[in-house]
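[Automated response] Your request has been received and processed.

Submitted sequence:
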Amino acid sequence: MKSKEREILSLFNDITGANLREVTDKYCRFDAIGEGIVAEIKYRNKHYDKTIIEFDKYSFNKEYAELNKMYFYYVVACDDEVFCFDILELVEDNHNFLWEWKKMPITTEFGKRELIYKYVGYIPLDMAFIR
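Generated structure:
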C-alpha cells in the first residue's frame, strides 16, 4: 500500500471508528480488512463527478465479501475529500456500473506510462455513504 493510501485508511478509521488494518500481502486483491469489512482504497489526483472501479477488483472483492458475510467498501480520496461506497449495497440497488473497456496506464507509479485496456465501471460520487 502506498503512503497516500495509508493516510486515507487512517482517515477512514478516524471517521468511521472502524479498525481496518492494512493487508501486508502484496498480491492480495484488497488493501485493508477488519471486523466484517474488506476495503479497496484509491487516491485520485484529479476530481471527477464519477470514480472508476476496475472490474477485477470489483468482482473478486464482491465475491469474497459475500462468501465471508462481510461488507466491501470502496474508499476513494481526491483532493481533501474522502468518498466511501458500499459496493454490495450498490449491487443490491441494481446500480448500473456502465462497464466498458478503457485504455489506461498499466500502473499509477511514476515513470510507468505503458497503456493497456482495463475493464472498468463508474460510480457517481454522490452515491457515497461517506463524503
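Summary generated for your ticket: The radius of gyration is 14 Å. The longest strand covers residues 115-124.
If you did not submit this request, please reply to this message.
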